[in-house]
């Protein structure tokens, strides 16, 4: 088996191979997509490492933070799903785990007799504030300067808009 070149970029090599095998018109797009997926993996590994001491995943942190930031510290389950942009079944699963850990509670929605509110507990609020300190270390050390971060945000927003994710 041939040895990989030292310090070679496997994603760039995949792009070269894509083009060489007859898909040159899609090679740049393929390389961009694979690069975004790899960056996602790298960032999630850093995030999960930062959150590990707190015993929560990023999806659980996001739900706790959403509730902590809401005025009443509680939201209907369907609003949680919409705001986090995840399937209702995923929200239910995440809430189940957070309830078991004493970080959120379910209660009837007084505005909708059939609906359920999920509310963050004092323990959950404390956890969010502590975990946010660890996450902010990740967020302030991305390896990109502020103009690069803004450019990245602009590019991501442009893609999200073209995909119909933004109004």
From TrEMBL:
Pfam families (alphabetical): MarR_2
HTH marR-type domain segment(s): 26-161
GO molecular function: DNA binding; DNA-binding transcription factor activity
One GO process term, biological-process aspect: response to stress
UniProt keyword annotations, A-Z: DNA-binding, Transcription, Transcription regulation
PANTHER family xrefs: TRANSCRIPTIONAL REGULATOR, MARR FAMILY, TRANSCRIPTIONAL REPRESSOR MPRA
The protein's name: DNA-binding MarR family transcriptional regulator
Native source organism of the sequence: Luteococcus japonicus
Source taxonomy: Bacteria, Bacillati, Actinomycetota, Actinomycetes, Propionibacteriales
């Amino acid at each position: 088996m041939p040895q990989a070149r030292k310090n070679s970029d496997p994603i760039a090599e995949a792009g070269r191979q894509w083009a060489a095998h007859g898909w040159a018109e899609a090679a740049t797009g393929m390389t961009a997509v694979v690069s975004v997926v790899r960056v996602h993996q790298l960032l999630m590994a850093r995030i999960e490492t930062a959150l590990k001491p707190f015993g929560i995943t990023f999806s659980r942190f996001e739900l706790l933070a959403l509730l902590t930031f809401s005025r009443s510290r509680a939201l209907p389950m369907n609003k949680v799903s919409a705001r986090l942009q995840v399937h209702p079944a995923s929200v239910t699963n995440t809430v189940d785990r957070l309830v078991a850990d004493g970080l959120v509670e379910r209660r009837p929605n007084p505005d909708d007799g059939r609906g359920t509110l999920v509310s963050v507990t004092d323990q959950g609020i404390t956890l969010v504030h502590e975990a946010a300190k660890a996450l902010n270390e990740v967020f302030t050390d991305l390896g990109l300067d502020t103009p690069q971060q803004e450019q990245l945000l602009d590019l991501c927003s442009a893609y999200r808009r073209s995909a119909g994710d933004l109004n």
